[in-house]
Amino acid sequence: MPGEGGRDAAAPSPPAAAPGRPNTVVGASGRPSDQPPEDSTPAEELSETIIRNAPPWLISAVVHMLLLIILGLWFFVIEGPQRTISLDSFTDVFAEKLGEQLQYDTLVGKKDVFQVEEPVVTPDRLPPVDDPFAAPEKLVDLHPNGNVASSQINAKQIGLALSGRREGSKQSLLGRYGGNRTTEEAVQRGLAWLARNQTGDGSWSLEGPYSDGAFHVENREAATAMALLAFQGNGQTPREGKYQRNVARAWNWLLKQQDADGNFFHEGGSNHRYYTHAMCTIALCELLSMTKNETYRPAADRAVENLLRGQSPEGGWRYQPQLDTDVSVTGWCVMALQSARMAGLAVPGDSFRRVERFLDRSAQHGGSRYPYQPRDSATLSMTAEALLIRQYLGWSRDDPRMAAGVKWLTASKNLVDYRDGRDVYYWYYATQVAHNMEGDYWKRWNAVMRQAVPQHQVKTGRESGSWDPKRPTLDRWGNSAGRLYVTCLSIYVLEVYYRHLPLYENIYDLHLPTFEFTQPSPHEEEGLKDEG
At 364, phi and psi to the nearest 5? Predict the structure, then answer.
């Protein structure tokens, strides 16, 4: 067979002409002749003939032209102009609006942190972690009772209570414990108001420059500490966060106010001394715990030692060192000592036991309610503050006295209400107590709190982001403490979802990141040079 696997040597013969169809033959001159032509070649045969008889250079040119066209189209698709989509063009859509609160799908406190009540957008530029799957060391389960001081809890374990303030953890905890976009936006507006009202030297004032300040009572140390607690509760430090410059400037000023004895109190009413010093100590110990910057440790040590020296024989603190005791001042001082232990500072267990004995003497209704001082009648605010101290000192969640007290706090008539009995001081402590208890107690309290507090924040005008101390009704401390005080405590209330992890929750299953040591920033070093 000729040409097996190839072609025959001779060219194929043209096909026979089709009958009945005239053909035109082209003569040598190029003009048609009168002789009948052969039949026309079909299109495919004609193409084959043209390709076979075409000169090689023409075929090469066609092939290269096709390749250039293909490459050009490919380049246009890859490198051509692209549309840029701006995220700013989108409009936020809220899953929950004021006045239309969603119901909980599950009981608060379930183990699955990803079953959130409302999706929360994760912010950009989250801080990197060395090992995102690393879990804290295995901890020993503790079963304290009402007679065990909290000093028996290892300080390293307590330090994890501040870990929820970090971005990422904060977003998860918001959904886990019933926070939402509304509560967090109210926090951010409140912090923006504080930043606008920071003075030139980095401090804040109780009296102004805003309206409705404290009535002729100035205490810049206390005002600055309260503002710092609001910023730090949101995870802001001199090195991290949107307001790191504000925080750095505030600490540069506040650290210079501490005297050689460790005391921060220098101005204000005679009843301000230990409120002021305790707030400054809490803020300073939180800063040390959050940043792990050892430069702050000497100042924190001096502050704690000053606080311990002022504890009275009755077991707590009041207005003057070692003189008398009340639940209100004692609560702030105990929180300062707990913050010190979170930062790894030494606190004698006997200090907590003395506080416990004072509460035992003050307790009413079988230990479920508490007065300002033992001779007084029990009140909601003092009960909330005393029960928080009891939680820190070791009372369990299922202690009958604790359960009875929290049941009273979360009764319908005692929930957050701006129309009658407005008292943000009470709400601040009751929010923490209910959050630690979780379950139905927290669900009932939070359902009202997260609606009412953001709703009454000022939304427009010069004071946008603050809370008016006199409208819609006068806060119990609105006249004497003023707008900054009411605003800071309102921010603390709305930060509760991540500000401190619940005491009774098995928080070590959450794999939350811990704060790592970092060198001081230039903003920090600027102020610490004078501190020495």
Answer: -130, 165
SS3 per residue for 82-108: CCCCCHHHCCCCCCCECCECCCCCCCC
Tell me the pLDDT of the chain averaged across its residues: 77
Provide the token pair at 322: 């070692």
Least confident of 337-351, 356-370, 516-530: 516-530
DSSP letter at 317 equals -
Residue in the structure block whose two tokens are 């001159």: 29
CA distance 428 to 438: 16
Q: Which value, to the nearest 10 degrees, does the dihedral of the CA atoms of residues 166, 167, 168, 172 take?
A: 80
Tell me how far CA of residue 286 lies from CA of 266, 336, 459, in angstroms: 22, 9, 30
Q: What is the mean pLDDT of residues 480-496?
A: 96
Which of 51-60, 303-312, 492-501 tops mean pLDDT? 303-312
R_g (Cα) of the chain, nearest Å:
38
Higher pLDDT among residues 450 and 30, named by residue:
450
Read off φ and ψ for residue 147, nearest 5 degrees.
-105, 10
Contact 425, 467 (CB under 8 A): no
Q: Which two tokens stand for residue 235?
A: 């995870």
User: How many angstroms separate the most distant Cα atoms in the chain?
Assistant: 138
Dig out the tokens for 88 from the structure.
């700013």
| The amino acid at 473 | T
Spatial distance between the Cα atoms of 332 and 329, rounded to a whole number of angstroms: 5
DSSP secondary structure code for residue 177 in this structure: T
Assigned token pair, 26: 């082209």
- Is the preceding omega at residue 472 within 30 degrees of 0, hence cis? yes
Question: Do residues 157 and 139 lie in contact, with contact meaning Cβ atoms separated by under 8 Å?
Answer: yes
The string of pLDDT tens digits covering residues 376-422 is 999 999 999 999 999 999 999 999 999 999 999 999 999 999 999 99
- Predicted local confidence at residue 367, as pLDDT: 96
Q: Rounded to the nearest 10 degrees, how much is the dihedral formed by the CA atoms of 525, 193, 330, 416? A: -150
Res 231: pLDDT: 97
Query: What pLDDT score was predicted for residue 103?
Result: 41
From residue 354, alpha-carbon distances to 313, 359, 393, 456 in Å are 8, 9, 11, 40
Please name every residue paired with 369 in a beta bridge, in sequence order, or none if there are none.
364
Q: Average pLDDT of 72-94?
A: 48
